[in-house]
Amino acid sequence: MRIPLSKNPFSRQPLARRVVAYYLFFCVAAVAWLLVGSAWTSYTLHSQRVSDSCLARLGQTAATVKVALLRDNADKSQRIADALHQLQRSVDAKSCSVVDTQGKFAAHTDPDRVGEPVGEPVGERKQWGAIETIRYEGANGRYKNEYRAALSSDGAALGELRLTVDEMRGVDAFSMAVSNTPTAVLAPLVLIFIGALALVRMTRPLDEMQDQLTRAARTSKTERLELDRLRPATATALGWNRLVEELSEKSTAEPAAPTPEVDRRRSGFEEIVQGLSDGVAVTDAAGRVEFANRAIAALLGAEELSDQSLVELLGDAAPSADTACRRTVSELRRGEGEAERVLRVARQPLTEGKAGRALWSLRDVTQQKLVEQARDQFIDTATHELRTPLSNIRAYSETLATGDVVDLEAVKEFCTIINSEATRLGRFVDDLLTISSLEVGALTIERHNVMVDRLLSEAAMKAKPLMEQKQIEFEVQAPAKPIEMKLDKDKIAAAITNLLGNAAKYTPEGGHVSLKATAQGGELRIAVADTGLGIGEDEHTRVFEKFFRSADERVRDTTGTGLGLPLAREVARLHDGDITLESKIGQGSTFTLTLPIG
Q: What is the tens place of the pLDDT at every residue in 72-129?
C-alpha cells in the first residue's frame, strides 16, 4: 500500500527551501512592521508639533491683529496682511484670514478672497481654551484643520482670526519615515539575507534526508527499500549514515518477533470484536472454527467453539459446498413457540491468507421478523378497513343513483349509512396520517385551558351509543372538584374515546365499563375499567406496539387496526404523562391515563 502524500505544492518543496521561506517571511514581516510603526510615529509627532505651533502662534498673531484693528491708521490693512503672511509661513499653513462680524473676509492671504462671504465647514470641533479647532474634509478630499481665535475689545466683537492647515497624509508620513531611517531598514535586510545563506548551508543534510524519506514513502512494501549515505560533513549526516548501516544489516536478518505495540493493537482489536452484539467467527478450509467471539457462542448456545465444525452447528442453515467461493446469506430458526429465535447467517470467503478460510456473522433478527409479521397483519386489516366502507358507500350510492328508491325515509337511511361509512373511512385515514407523523417525530400538541369534567362528559357522550348497542352498564365519575388544565383537547379526547371504544368492543353484552377521574399527588388519573376478555401478562407491553394484534382468537374476530393504543400513549407522553395497564385473562382490563396537573 502506498502512503498518500500531501497535495500542497509548498509541502513538497525541499526542507531547506521551506525553512528559508518561513525565515524570510517572518523577518520581512518584522521589518515591515517596524517601518509602519516608524511611519505612524512620524505622523503622530508631526501632527502634534504642527498643532502646538499653530496654537502658540495663533494667539500671538491674534494680539497683533487686534491692535491693528483698534488703531485708525492708514497702513492698518497692510499691517494685518503682513501679520497673516508671517503666520502662514511660520506654520506652513494653507491659508490665514480675518473674518469680520458680518461673516465676510476682512483680510486674507489670498487678496482675491477679501470681501467674500465665509462658508461654515462641517466637521469635528474641539475647544482649546480661547481657540477652537475644526477638522473637516476639503473639496479635494484631503482633511484640513482650521484654528479660530475670537477678536474682541471690552466685550465688543471685532471679528475672528482663522488659520487653515492641511493634515498630513499617510503616504507623506511613510515617505518621511523611509527618508529618515534608511540605515535602520537596510541593515536588518542585509543581516536577514546573510542568515538565510547560513540556514541553507545548515539544513542541506536535512534536505537530502527528506528526499530519501519521501522516496521511501512512495515505495511499496513489496519492493526493497534502499537508503543512501550522506557526505559526513556534520554530526547529523554521521547519525544518518549509522542508521542506514543498521537498517541494511537488519534487512538481511530474520523477521523480528511482534513488538509490544503490535501485541497491544491486536489485543485491542480482539477486545472490540469480542464486544460486538453480532456473532463473528473465522473458519478454516474444513469449516472448523479458528476464532469466535462471545456473541456467536451465546447465539448458538455453545460454551466453546474452538476447533468445532461451524457447518455442523448451523445444520440446514449452512451454505452448500458449491457456494464456498461466494458470499451467502441464510436464516436459522432455533427454539419453539414463544422462545423461537431467528438468526441471519452470512458467510464471506476470505481472499487473503490460507485458501478456503471464511468469515461468518450471525445476527438475531427475531424482533425484525416480529415487526414484519405485525406489518403484514396491519396490511390485511387495512385492506379490510378500506374495502368494507368503500363497498358499502358504493352499494348505497348506486342504489340511490338508479332512482328505484322513492321513499324519503329510505333515502335518509341510505344517506346516513353513506355518511357513517365515510366517517369511518376518514377516521382510519387520520390514524394512518397520525402514525406517519409519529414515525418522523412530527406529532405535536397545542395546549389550551380545558375543564376536565366537560372533557370527560363529551368523551362519554361519544362512547354512549356503543355501550347502549351492547347493553353495557356505563358509569362515569368526574373529579370531586372542577379542574382546569392546559391540554390539547382534541387529542386527549381522542385518546379517552379510543380507550372507551376498546372497552366497549371487547366487553361482552351485559358487562360493565367505568370512566373515573381522580386528582391525586399533583396528577390527574383517568381510569377506563371493563369486565371484558382481559389481556395476558405476556402481551401487556406489546399492546402499545404499532400494528400489534393479540393472538387470542376472540380478539382477532373483532375488527381493529392496532393503532389506537400506540397513538393514545404517544399523546399522553407528549403531555408529560403516560398510560398504564392492569389486566388478567377473563377478569377485564383497566387502562389508566395519567397527566400532570399544572
A: 766 778 888 888 888 888 888 888 888 888 888 888 888 888 888 888 888 888 887 8
Q: How confident is the model at residue 475 (pLDDT cuts 50, 70, 90)?
A: very high
For residues 211 and 488, give the distance between their C-alpha atoms in angstroms, rounded to a whole number.
73
DSSP 385-405: HHHHHHHHHHHHHHHHHHT--
Task: Name the grid cell of 226.
Answer: 534502499
What integer pLDDT is reported at residue 1 of this predicted model? 42
Radius of gyration of the CA atoms of the chain, in A: 49
Does residue 90 fall inside a structural domain?
A: yes
Asked if the structure places residue 50 within a domain, the reply is yes
> Are residue 592 and residue 518 in the same domain, yes or no?
yes
3-class DSSP assignment, residue 173: helix
- The answer on 171 and 79 residing in a single domain is yes
CATH number for the domain that contains residue 507 = 3.30.565.10
Task: Output the nine-digit C-alpha cell for 240.
Answer: 544518518
What integer pLDDT is reported at residue 10 of this predicted model?
Answer: 52
Q: In this structure, are residues 345 and 333 in contact, taking their beta carbons and an 8 Å threshold?
A: no
> Which residue range forms the structural domain that includes residue 95?
18-177
- What pTM, to 2 d.p., does this model score? 0.40
Shared domain check, 591 and 452: yes
Q: What is the distance between the alpha carbons of residues 343 and 365, in angstroms, rounded to a whole number?
A: 6
Q: How many domains does the chain have?
A: 4
